[in-house]
């Protein structure tokens, strides 16, 4: 992906450009522990339509945050994993998880998902 010199007015804007999107942070979060098949991601993010999930995965692949590997089986399987660049976002995702946990604790809500920390 090519970026223009004056495309971003601040670092937060650049970060949101890369990981902003309805499901991009969730996709990255689920890929922290291990590579996942497309259908595993679909099950982990049930609110994402197949079209939206595919688009978000394409965007993350295009900017170099995830790697897509097609396994030539019948039917073919697609596996997604974090690249080194994608792994560099883990501290940000951990901070988001910590902040969200504190927020939900204040509302006395226990999230159904488990923290990876």
Q: Brief overview, please?
A:
The chain is 49% helix and 12% strand. The protein is mostly helical and 117 residues long.
Give me some keywords for this one.
single chain, 117 residues, mainly alpha, three-stranded antiparallel β-sheet, 3 strands, globular, Helix-turn-helix domain-containing protein, DNA-binding, transcription regulation, WH_DNA-bd_sf, WH-like_DNA-bd_sf
Number of helices: 6
Order of helices and strands: HHEHHEEHH
Radius of gyration: 15 Å
- How far apart, in Å, are the first and last alpha carbons? 31 Å
Mean pLDDT: 91
Structural class: mainly alpha
The helix fraction, in percent, is 40-55%
- Number of E strands: 3
Shape, per Cα inertia axes: globular
Major pleated sheet: 3 strands, antiparallel
Strand fraction band? 5-15%
Strand order of the largest sheet: 1-3-2
Which consecutive residue ranges, at least 5 long each, have pLDDT under 50?
none
């Amino acid at each position: 992906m090519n970026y223009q010199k004056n495309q971003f007015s601040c670092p937060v804007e650049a970060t949101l450009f890369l990981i902003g999107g309805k499901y991009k942070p969730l996709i990255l979060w689920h890929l922290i522990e291990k590579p996942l098949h497309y259908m595993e991601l679909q099950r982990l993010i049930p609110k994402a339509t197949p079209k939206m999930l595919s688009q978000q995965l394409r965007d993350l692949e295009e900017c170099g945050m995830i790697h897509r590997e097609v396994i030539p089986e019948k039917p073919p399987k697609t596996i997604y994993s974090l690249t080194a660049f994608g792994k560099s976002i883990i501290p940000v995702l951990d901070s988001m998880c910590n902040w969200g946990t504190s927020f939900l604790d204040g509302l006395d809500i226990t999230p159904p998902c488990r923290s990876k920390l």
